[in-house]
Design a protein that fits this description.
Elements lengths: L1 H19 L2 E6 L2 E5 H8 L23 E4 H5 L2 H4 L2 H7 L2 H6 L3 H6 L3 E3 H14 L10 H7 L26 H4 L5 E6 L10 H16 L5 E4 L8 E6 L12 E3 L4 E5 L4 E2 L6 E2 H12 L29 H11 L6 E2 L35 E5 L5 E6 L2 E9 L4 E6 L6 E2 L14 E4 L6 E6 L2 E6 L4 E7 H4 L10 E6 L2 E6 L2 E6 L4 E3 L16 E4 L5 E6 L2 E6 L12 E2 H5 L13 H16 L11 H5 L15
Parallel strand pairs: 5-6, 5-7, 6-12, 7-9, 10-11
Antiparallel strand pairs: 1-2, 1-3, 3-4, 8-9, 13-14, 14-15, 15-16, 15-17, 18-19, 19-20, 20-21, 22-23, 23-24, 24-25, 26-27, 27-28, 28-29
Helix pairs in contact: 11-12
C-alpha cells in the first residue's frame, strides 16, 4: 500500500515536471528563457496562476520591465493560460492592441512585448470600469479572478467587421437572417447537479427571454445533425480556456457548460444555470460583451450574483432586435411525456373518511413548509390534512415575501395532490440529490416524493438513514448549505452530506434552534441562507447556519404578513382587565411596525387583530 502510494506521487510529480519544462522561446529582463516554469516565474505578476495565488506571494509582487513572449507558448501551458497574460490573450485584449487576429498570434512568430502587455492591460481596465493605468494592481488581479463567460470581450477582425456568431455567418454573404433555430440536448452530457427536467426547463426559460424580445424562435429536435445549437455539460479541457470561465459557445453552435461548476437554480449558491444560459444564447445570436457602463445587462462578461426574476436589460433587448429583427418568436420543446395524476400502486393510502371537501376556517398548526425551487417558484405549507401554496407577494417589484396564493384553493394531502404522503407530517425538506424531489417525515418513517411524476417513489424507516442513534421522529428539517441538510431531533442536529452521502447523527446540544420555545415546524424559506420558524400564530426568520434571528422578521404575525388563516384560540376567554392590557399592547405593536414580542397572554388577542403587513427589504437578508 505504501509503495503504491509512493509510486503514484512520483508519477504525478513527473507529470507536473514535464508540463512545467515545456519548451518556449522568450526573453524577460535581459534573460533568455526556454521552459514554462522559468518563464512563469520571470513574468512575475503577469505569470502567476490566478487560481493558485497563495503559493506565489513573492512572484505576484514582481513586475517585469522588458518582455518578449510568443502567444503560442502561452496557450501551450495550463499555468500561463490561467495567468494574467493568458487572460489578456484569451479575451482579445492582445489582439486589439497588436492588430493581429487570434490565428495570426497563436500560429505565427509574432512576439508580444511589454508595451503590448501594458496597452492590453489598459484596455481591460477601461472595458471593466477599473482605474485605467496600464499597470498591474490588486484590483485588476482580483477582477481577473472573478467567474465569467469564456468568450472574448474584444477582438481584432482583419476584415474590419463586427464579430458575428455561427448563426449569422451566412448572413454576411446572403444578407438574410435565420429566425428559427433548432436546438438539441446531448442525452449523455447532462450535469449531475440538477435533475434533467429542471436543466431543460431552465434553458428553455432562457430561450424564452430572447424569443419574447426579438424575432427569433427556438425548436427542439431529436437528432444531433439537424440542430443549429448543441447543448452539453463538459468536463476537462473543452475549449473554455481560463479556469474562471463557466461556459462558452463555439462557431459551430456548441453551447458548453463547464461541469466543474456547481450549477443551481433559484439560489445565490453556486452558478445559476438560467443566468449563464441566457448569456450564452445572446452570443449565439451574435451579441458581443458589453462594457462596464452596462454591467446591469445580461451580456456583461462577468458572472452576476443571482437575482430573482432576472430580465434582459435595455441594451440586451436592443442588441437582440438589431441581431435578428423586431418581433416575437416562440420556444417549442419536445414533449417526452405528458404528466397526469398517477394511480398510486402498492402504496399505503390513509383513509379519507372524515376529511371535508372544503378547507378549515383556520389553521390550528403548521406542520412543515417545503420550498419548490422550480419555475415558477412556490412554497408549499403543510397543515394537518391540507396543504397550501404560497407565492412571492410582488416579484416584479422585488418583494419576495411569500403570501397565500389566492388563485388556487388549499388541497387535501393524498386526495387532491401529494399522492402517497401521510397527513399531519412532522417535517419536509427538498432533496439535495434531485431538485424535483422532497423528503417528508412522519413518526419513524420517511418518504421521498417526486414533484413531476406526482408520487412517492421511495419510503423507509429512519433506521435505514441512521442505523446508530436512530431518532424516534424528526421535529424539523432545513437546508444548511448546498451540500448539507439538517434535521432537528430534540436538542440534537442530525445531518445529511450530499457530497459523501453520509447521514450523521447529532450530538447533545448541537441543535441551535432549540431556543425557540413551542417549535411547531422549521423549514427552508424563500431566501436561501435563512430558515422560517413557526410558533403557533407567529413566525421568525433565522440563519440556517447558526439560528441567529433577523431583526425585522422576529416573531411576526403569520396572518398579517402571509395571509394565512391562523386560529386564535384564547381570545374569548380573556378577562376584562387582560383585554385592556392586550389592547394597549396591540396599539404599541402597530406603532412599532410589529417589532415587539407580545406577552404570552396577549399573543392570540393580537394575532386576531393585528393587520399591518411587514415591509419587505432585501437588505434585511444580507
Amino acid at each position: 500500500m505504501g509503495r503504491s502510494l509512493l509510486m503514484l506521487i512520483l508519477c504525478l510529480l513527473m507529470v507536473i515536471r514535464t508540463s512545467s519544462n515545456k519548451r518556449v522561446d522568450a526573453y524577460v529582463d535581459g534573460r533568455e528563457i526556454s521552459n514554462v516554469r522559468d518563464l512563469s516565474n520571470a513574468l512575475g505578476w503577469f505569470g502567476v496562476n490566478l487560481f493558485n495565488l497563495g503559493f506565489h506571494q513573492t512572484q505576484r509582487n514582481r513586475i517585469p520591465k522588458v518582455v518578449r513572449i510568443r502567444a503560442r507558448d502561452i496557450n501551450n501551458s495550463d499555468h500561463l493560460e490561467n495567468s494574467a497574460v493568458g487572460y489578456l490573450l484569451q479575451f482579445g485584449y492582445i489582439e486589439m492592441v497588436t492588430e493581429k487576429t487570434e490565428t495570426e498570434l497563436t500560429e505565427g512568430d509574432y512576439f508580444i512585448d511589454h508595451n503590448d502587455l501594458s496597452k492590453a492591460l489598459r484596455e481591460l481596465q477601461k472595458f471593466h470600469g477599473l482605474a485605467v493605468t496600464g499597470r498591474p494592481s490588486v484590483e485588476t488581479q482580483g477582477h481577473m479572478m472573478r467567474a465569467r463567460c469564456g468568450m472574448k470581450d474584444v477582438r481584432y477582425d482583419s476584415l474590419n467587421r463586427a464579430e458575428r456568431s455561427f448563426i449569422l455567418e451566412k448572413t454576411l454573404e446572403t444578407k438574410r437572417v435565420k429566425n428559427t433555430l433548432k436546438y438539441w440536448f446531448d442525452p449523455d452530457k447532462y450535469t449531475n447537479d440538477l435533475d434533467k427536467d429542471l436543466v431543460r426547463s431552465e434553458v428553455e426559460e432562457a430561450f424564452k427571454l430572447w424569443s419574447n424580445t426579438a424575432n427569433i424562435s427556438f425548436l427542439e429536435v431529436q437528432i444531433n445533425n439537424e440542430a443549429d445549437i448543441r447543448i452539453s455539460f463538459e468536463v476537462g479541457d473543452h475549449g473554455d480556456g481560463i479556469g474562471g470561465a463557466n461556459s462558452h459557445v463555439t462557431p459551430k453552435g456548441l453551447l458548453h457548460f463547464d461541469d466543474a461548476e456547481k450549477f443551481t437554480v433559484q439560489t445565490a449558491y453556486g452558478t445559476n444555470l438560467h443566468y449563464v444560459a441566457t448569456h450564452q444564447i445572446g452570443h449565439l445570436l451574435g451579441i458581443p460583451h458589453f462594457e462596464a457602463d452596462h454591467r446591469n445587462n445580461v451580456m456583461f462578461p462577468l458572472y452576476q450574483r443571482y437575482k430573482d426574476n432576472r430580465e434582459l436589460g435595455r441594451l440586451d433587448k436592443a442588441a437582440g432586435v438589431a441581431a435578428v429583427g423586431a418581433g416575437e418568436g416562440s420556444v417549442q420543446p419536445l414533449i417526452e411525456e405528458i404528466i397526469l395524476p398517477v394511480e398510486v400502486v402498492n402504496q399505503y393510502v390513509e383513509p379519507t373518511a372524515g376529511i371535508p371537501d372544503i378547507p378549515p376556517g383556520c389553521i390550528e398548526k403548521i406542520d412543515a413548509v417545503f420550498h419548490w425551487a422550480g419555475n415558477p417558484e412556490y412554497l408549499y405549507l403543510f397543515a394537518g390534512s391540507w396543504y397550501y401554496r404560497l407565492v412571492p407577494r410582488s416579484s416584479d417589484s422585488g418583494d419576495l415575501l411569500p403570501v397565500l396564493d389566492a388563485s388556487v384553493l388549499p388541497k387535501r394531502i393524498g386526495i387532491d395532490g401529494l399522492f402517497g404522503l401521510p397527513r399531519n407530517i412532522d417535517a419536509a425538506v427538498e432533496s439535495l440529490d434531485n431538485s424535483i424531489q422532497l423528503y417528508a417525515f412522519k413518526g419513524s418513517k420517511y418518504y421521498i416524493y417526486n414533484m413531476l411524476s406526482r408520487k412517492v417513489i421511495k419510503e423507509g424507516s429512519l433506521s435505514d438513514l441512521w442505523p446508530v442513534d436512530t431518532p424516534d421522529k424528526i421535529d424539523g428539517a432545513l437546508q444548511i448549505d448546498p451540500q448539507t441538510l439538517g434535521f432537528l431531533v430534540e436538542d440534537k442536529l442530525y445531518e445529511y452530506k450530499s457530497d459523501t452521502g453520509e447521514w450523521r447523527a447529532g450530538c447533545d446540544g448541537s441543535n441551535y434552534f432549540r431556543k425557540f420555545v413551542g417549535l411547531d415546524s422549521l423549514s427552508v424559506g424563500f431566501i436561501r441562507g435563512w430558515t422560517w420558524i413557526f410558533q403557533g400564530a407567529w413566525y421568525s426568520v433565522a440563519r440556517d447556519r447558526n439560528g441567529w434571528e433577523s431583526y425585522t422578521f422576529m416573531l411576526r404575525s403569520i396572518k398579517a404578513d402571509l395571509g394565512l388563516p391562523i386560529c386564535a384560540q384564547q381570545v374569548g376567554s380573556l378577562s376584562t382587565r387582560t383585554n385592556r392590557r392586550c389592547a394597549k399592547e396591540l396599539r404599541k405593536m402597530k406603532l412599532l411596525a410589529g417589532r415587539m414580542e407580545p406577552s404570552s397572554a396577549c399573543k392570540d388577542y393580537i394575532v386576531d387583530r393585528y393587520n399591518v403587513e411587514v415591509e419587505f427589504d432585501m437588505t434585511d437578508f444580507n
